[in-house]
Amino acid sequence: MGMQVVKYNFPTETHFAIETPADDASQLIEKRLIGVSGWAENARRLVARHASHDDTVNLEGEPGTGKAFLAALIHQCSARREGPFVSLTFGSASADVACSVLFGSSLSPEELRDEKGLIEQAREGTLYVEGLSDSASSVVEHIVNLRRQSRFNSRREDRARIMLGWDIQPGSHDSKVPSGIRNARDFESIAIPPLRERPDDIEALIVHFVKQRCAQTRKEVRTVSPEALKALRAYDWPRNVLELRTLVCRLVNQTRPPSIEVSFLPAYVRDRNGCDADLFPVSGVDLSNEIRRREIELICEALKHSRGLQTKAARLLQIKATTLFMKIQRYGIDVEAFR
Question: What's the CA gap between 59 and 61, in Å, rounded?
C-alpha cells in the first residue's frame, strides 16, 4: 500500500535512570549525535530542548539527512521514553489509506472506537510520520485536529506526541510544511541541512560508522586511509548520511584490516576527486573481488531506489526475489539502512 510502519519499544539498556533524566539524556545525546560542525553542536541543543516538551515538531530536510534518527533521539530523551516509538513512512500511499492506518477504519469518531489506529497505539509514546509532502497536507490536518481536540484522552500524558518528517527536494530550500501548520503556536520546526553543507562532519561520521559496523559484524576495526578520506569528503552525497552509512557498511564488509584504501571506493566517488588513476593499479587487481564489489554496489543501488523493498529491487536487477534475498544474506547487506 506504499507505506511502511514500524512500532518500536526501545530496549531496556537504552533507557535512562528516571531519577537523573537530564544528566543521562545529555550523555546519550553526546554519544549518539556525531559531528563537530556548527550544525552538530546546535542539533545537540535542539534535541535537548525539544525533549523537554510535548509540542509537535516538524523535521525538514532532504531524504537521508536523519529526520527519523532525530525524532527517535528526541523520544529517547523525553519523559515518554518508556512508551512506544511508532514510525510511519507515508511514501506513495493515498490520503485515504494513510488515514485508515493512522486513525483506524474510518475518520468517523464513532468508528474510531472500533479499531485502533497508529495514533491510538502510540499513546504514552511518540508517533513519527515521515515522507510527507504537499500531497499529504490533508492527512496532517486530520492529525492536527485530532491532537487539538484530544479525542482519545483528556490527559495530556496519555496521548501520543506527534512528530512530522517533511522531505525537501535536493538543492531546494523551500519548506514543504503548510503555512497553517508552520505558523501554529504549538508547532516547532527543525531544518536539517544536507551532508554536503556540513563537510566537517563527514570524517567523524565515517569513523563512527566503521566502528559501529565492525562491532555489529565482529570484525577487527579498520582505519580509513588519508587518500580515501579525501575522496569521501569531496563527494557530494546526494542521499546524505544514509548513503554515507550504507557505503561505509559495504566497505567494512568488503575489506580486511588494517585500513580501507581509496582503491576500494566506488568509481563514482574516486572520479569525483580525480582518483581515476587508481582504477587499475600497477600491482594489478583481484578480479573476483572486483566482481563481488560491483555486485554489492548494484544491489545496494537497487535497494536505495526501491527504499528497501526487496521485490522491487529484484525487478530492477532483473533477477528473482529469492536470488536477491540469498545475495543479501551472503554479503551481509543491511536492508533496514535503505528504508
Answer: 7
Compute the distance between CA of residue 158 and CA of residue 165 in angstroms, rounded to an integer.
22
Q: How far is CA 243 from CA 13, 91, 246, in A?
A: 28, 19, 5
Q: Which residue has the higher pLDDT, 274 or 45?
A: 45
Helix (H) or strand (E) holding 59: strand 56-61
CB 5 within 8 Å of CB 86: yes
Query: Is a pLDDT exceeding 50 seen at residue 12?
Result: no
> What is the reported pTM?
0.72
| Rounded Cα gap, residues 246 and 328, in angstroms | 13
Rounded-to-integer distance, Cα 245 and Cα 281, Å: 27
Answer whether 264's CB lies under 8 Å from 249's CB: no
**CA pair distance 211, 207, nearest whole angstrom:** 6
Q: 191-243: per-residue pLDDT in tens?
A: 999 999 999 999 999 999 999 999 999 989 999 999 999 999 999 999 999 99
Q: Which three cell numbers stand for residue 300?
A: 545496494
3-class SS of residue 60: strand
* DSSP H stretches of helix in 218-286: 226-234, 240-254, 267-272
How does 168-195 read in b/e, with b if 16+ C-beta sit within 10 Å?
beeeeeeebbbeebeebeebbebebbbb
Q: Are 275 and 232 in contact (CB under 8 A)?
A: no
Which domains are seen in the chain, by residue range?
Answer: 4-193 (3.40.50.300), 197-338 (1.10.8.60)
Does residue 247 come out as left (phi exceeding 0), alpha (psi in the -120 to 50 range) or beta? alpha
